[in-house]
Specification:
Helix content: 55-70%
Number of strands: 0
Radius of gyration: 21 Å
Shape: globular
Largest sheet: none
Strand content: under 5%
Order of helices and strands: HHHHHHHHHHHHH
Distance between the termini: 48 Å
Number of helices: 13
Structural class: mainly alpha
Length: 327
């Protein structure tokens, strides 16, 4: 029997009882077909949990046996997508349904042979096109908040989902994983979230953060330099903000938490303020307004270091604030 207290099982269960339960609650507020669909999503995650328990007990069987084991998950994926297919595109809740219809195949990560984290992220990205449309549709509505909460909780599910796969399975599902030891905990997963498969340039957190700067952040700066103008100027400040955050993390790694953490965050706060100002200096009719506003709305992500809890969800919220303008 698999030990249900094993970290790789408990952490998946924590997705169901944590962010997914919160998303289900947000769906109940909206009601109707949204609630119906998310109830199916929750059941699908629970069936995947059952599958993971079985996979923990045995070496990987023949492909036809694997297919039979994941069959209940596949059936629920089909039901989630069928609800969307049966809903007219003009229905005000169509984008909610499309978000899960496009992203629910993420549960199929257990069948991929490599880059499982990237696979989950790709499925999330397919859904985010529609979550952005949800925000755009209801942004000027008096009833905006329930839909905003729904989108944010959707993102929180995938933040923890990606962190889970990265922490416990890395490239692909590990069969016969055992009943104890070896698996990284949820905190380790959160520290490495939103990164590509692998160790992000090093096994320690400082190396991982530095590789974010030299990798995707630098790539963003290079792309911004091709656009030029205010976009390029803002990107250079964005890079500066990340470098200041790395300096802070290096200091934090050498000491216990002080009483006045805010005094250590001065440079980062100043960078955030300068970056946000770009959205105020560019005219609304300027074709670059959405570029600079996306960064201005999301640069607060650097403030995760000041939080006592929920850092991954906070980062997801900041990313969601930018998605509206990126769309």
């Amino acid at each position: 029997m698999a030990d249900i207290s094993a970290p790789h099982l408990k952490d998946f269960e924590a997705i169901i009882t944590g962010p997914l339960a919160a998303h289900q609650a947000a769906s109940e507020i909206i009601g109707g077909v949204v609630k119906q669909q998310v109830d199916l999503v929750v059941t699908a995650f629970k069936k995947e949990y059952d599958f993971l328990i079985e996979a923990a007990k045995t070496a990987k069987p023949a492909d036809d046996k694997v297919q039979a084991m994941v069959g209940p998950v596949g059936e629920l994926i089909g039901k989630v997508q069928a609800l969307c297919a049966d809903t007219p595109p003009r229905d005000p809740l169509f984008n909610h349904l499309s978000a899960w219809s496009e992203s629910i195949p993420a549960l199929g990560w257990v069948m991929v042979d490599s880059k499982a984290v990237s696979y989950v992220a790709d499925m999330e990205g397919a859904g985010e096109f529609y979550t952005s449309k949800v925000l755009m549709t209801f942004k000027k509505s008096d009833n905006f908040k329930p839909h905003q909460d729904w989108v944010n909780s959707f993102k929180a599910v995938f933040a923890d989902f990606k962190a889970y796969v990265k922490a416990h399975h890395t490239m692909k599902l590990e069969w016969n994983k055992g009943v104890s030891g070896g698996a990284k905990g949820k905190a380790a997963a959160a520290a490495n979230d939103d990164d590509d498969d692998g160790d992000a340039g090093g096994n320690d957190p400082l190396s991982a953060f530095a590789s974010i700067i030299t990798g995707p952040v630098q790539a963003y700066v290079d792309a911004s330099s091709k656009v030029g103008g205010e976009v390029e100027k803002q990107a250079k400040l964005f890079l500066q903000g990340f470098n200041h955050e790395l300096d802070f993390l290096k200091k934090a790694a050498t000491m216990a938490k002080p009483a006045d953490v805010q005094s250590m965050l001065g440079d980062i706060g100043a960078d955030i303020g300068k970056i946000a100002e770009f959205a105020q200096t560019v005219l609304p009719k300027d074709p670059m307004i959405n570029h600079v506003t996306a960064i201005a709305e999301s640069v607060g992500v650097l403030g995760w270091v000041a939080l006592d809890s929920g850092a991954v969800s906070y980062i997801g919220d900041m990313e969601g604030a930018a998605d509206f303008y990126l769309s």
